[in-house]
What we know:
The chain is of the alpha+beta class. It folds into three domains: about 5-55, no CATH class; about 65-170, no CATH class; about 180-245. Helices cover about 20% and strands about 35% of the residues. The chain is built from six helices and 15 strands. It has helices at about 5-15, 25-35, 40-45, 90-95, 165-170, 240-245, and strands at about 75-80, 85-90, 105-120, 120-135, 140-145, 150-155, 155-160, 180, 185, 190-195, 195-205, 210-215, 220-225, 230, 235. Strands 8, 9, 10, 11, 12, 13, 14 and 15 form an eight-stranded antiparallel sheet that branches. Strands 1, 2, 3, 4, 5, 6 and 7 form a seven-stranded antiparallel sheet that branches. α2 packs across α3 (about 40-45) and α4 (about 90-95) crosses α6 (about 240-245). It is globular, with a radius of gyration of 21 Å. The protein starts with a helix and ends with a helix. About 20% of the residues are buried. Residues about 1-25 and about 50-60 have low confidence and may be disordered.
Amino acid sequence: xxxxxxxxxxxxxxxxxxxxxxxxxxxxxxxxCLDARDYSGCLEANKSIPPSNQSIPNKNKTNFYSFQTxxxxxxxxxxxxxIQRLCSLPPLKRNALLFAPIDESRINFDTNLVHALKKGKxxxxxxxxxxxxxxxxxxxxxxxxxxxxxxxxNNWKTLTDISNREILKRCPEKVGYKVVNEYFEMNFNNIExxxxxxIFPIFDKKDRKFAEAHxxxxxxxxxxxxxxxxxxxxxxDPEHSFYVRVCKID
Length: 250
């Protein structure tokens, strides 16, 4: 039985279990997990999501990193030959955006600005993004192109299959989250500011529970809030990708 057919059967069972309709929370959960790689695992990990008529915490909000928000001036590390100039983001920013979630199935792998040259002058440009498709285990690419005064976002194209397990381990369990290490996933696209404190959701993969990170960019400290209790403050390296992503990227 193929995966798609299994998902349809499971969804039918959820909707008509014992001859009655399921609660709104179960419908929401089914929708959340419908496209997950591991449907059953997604149901188990998210079974505590509240019903749709209750206030859903910000941890369930899914905003994604878009390379369309980048400016050409941000690509400062350049190499040039006779036909093109290839520019990358500065190392700290490039590392901070590595494996950032792009959509429900892809995470960022690399983003570059390419100027096509004609007689040594810029002719047209592309912002080229490579991404890991976590559902298909493929490396894919797309371009934001400027040609003849028109800007066009091309569709995704597959470059190759991915067999490197270390790369595939960076695929998050939670939609919109980024894997920062073997213990945590963090949602950098859902940051709430309270004074100097940046608060954003994290998922503890060991305890299978959500928590909050409280990061002070000025003091360069952070704490973790679990079950309503805030941990002690810990120092953080300002070059750590965690700090750069929250405090140095607009």
